[in-house]
Input
Amino acid sequence: MKPTLTYFAVRGRAEPIRLMLEDLGIEYDERRIAVEEWPALKPTFMFGQVPTYRDGDVCIDQSHAIYRHLARKHDLYGDSELERVRCDIVEEAFVDAQNNIGTFCWSPNFAKERAAYEETQLPAVLDKLTKLFDLNTSNSGWWAGTRLSYVDFLAWHFLEYVRALSPRNLDRFERLKASKLKLESRPRIAAYLKSDRRPSTLTVHMAPFGGTPETS
Output
């Protein structure tokens, strides 16, 4: 039986899950919830939120728990305890970064404050991430150790938001951009990004930014 991913018909928090499954060549089903049906469905989910991931008898409700489950199951969690610690640190860094950019993209003052955000706040976030990236002295181009791990998908997802919002900032941080290109050049990822299976928007249509194909 194929695993089933439940989420809205947007990229959002489910996109790293899709990316991992695609790269691993794992077939999966999706249940895509319409925004209009969510109020009635929300109480039926344990935490009143999605994504959820079901694989046989395993049902997981929190997005980062899903990421780590896939990492453990499919050997995407480093080759040593030090690399696993590194993965944990990188993951937490991208929780903060994703919350930062996601909160801004939902801000009612988005249009008024966009220029200032792109000029000061976003570069500060990217500068910290560059310093973290450079701490991986393997020079592999991956975020932890010498090979692909689950945090590379989280990094890509955040940097994809940066690409949509502020491509000039992504261009400024060349090593971060190179890490993004490294992942998306993998054959199965490249095929997914071009496919009609990929949702067309970053988030739902009510968002000030990212809710249309043009802003995604």
In short: The mean pLDDT is 97.
